[in-house]
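A.,

Following up on our hallway conversation. Structure tokens first:
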């Protein structure tokens, strides 16, 4: 590995460690046995938010994005920041009966339970290049449901990005072949 690549890797590792220090582990929430990755401690730090946003943007270099699609509710924080930074529209994915116009729906399994997500039918146009964002990639069921909705409307998924991914739950496999980027991996 050349010096430039080594330096890049070291910087990425340092950034990851700094970001990890902003995440709070909460044991047995919302159910026994789950370690909840609480990002509110990250949101409280303007410095942490900047480092996280920069990391997410660094994974998008040379990629054209037309719209950012983000998942209710914790995906909205950085989803909106990403859309503003990229100067593209933000598209919310919401729980059922929250969006007022015609929607597409998709059911899916969660790490804890099952759910349905919806997005406005006219939010994506065929050929739109889409970035999907959420806070955590766990089993991948949520992001997979969003991918299915986006693709059913003709959108092309450029990348799914996350503040963090939980590698032991193998969500990356469920999202293949879509490119994944996470600022932090556990
Ligand atoms: P999954 O569909 O299993 O990939 O779960 C991802 C969704 O559930 C995301 O919207 C997360 O906000 C939430 N989630 C799953 N596991 C956790 C966790 N351990 N800590 C915080 N949020 C989680």
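Then the amino acids I'd put at each of the 186 positions:
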């Amino acid at each position: 590995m050349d010096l430039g690549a080594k330096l890049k890797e070291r910087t990425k590792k340092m950034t990851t460690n700094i970001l990890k220090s902003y995440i709070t582990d909460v044991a047995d929430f919302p159910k026994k046995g789950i370690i909840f990755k609480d990002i509110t401690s990250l949101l409280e730090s303007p410095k942490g938010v900047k480092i996280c946003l920069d990391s997410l943007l660094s994974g998008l270099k040379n990629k054209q994005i037309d719209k950012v699609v983000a998942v209710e509710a914790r995906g909205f924080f950085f989803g909106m920041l990403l859309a503003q930074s990229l100067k593209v529209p933000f598209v919310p994915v919401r729980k059922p009966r929250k969006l007022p116009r015609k929607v597409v729906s998709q059911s899916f399994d969660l790490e804890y339970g099952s759910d349905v997500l919806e997005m406005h039918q006219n939010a994506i146009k065929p050929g739109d290049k889409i970035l999907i964002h959420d806070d955590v990639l766990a089993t991948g069921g949520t992001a997979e449901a969003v991918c299915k909705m986006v693709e059913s409307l003709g959108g092309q998924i450029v990348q799914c990005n996350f503040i963090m991914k939980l590698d032991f739950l193998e969500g990356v496999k469920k999202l293949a072949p879509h490119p994944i980027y996470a600022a932090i991996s556990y």
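The two ends are 25 Å apart (CA to CA). Curious whether your intuition agrees with the design.

B.
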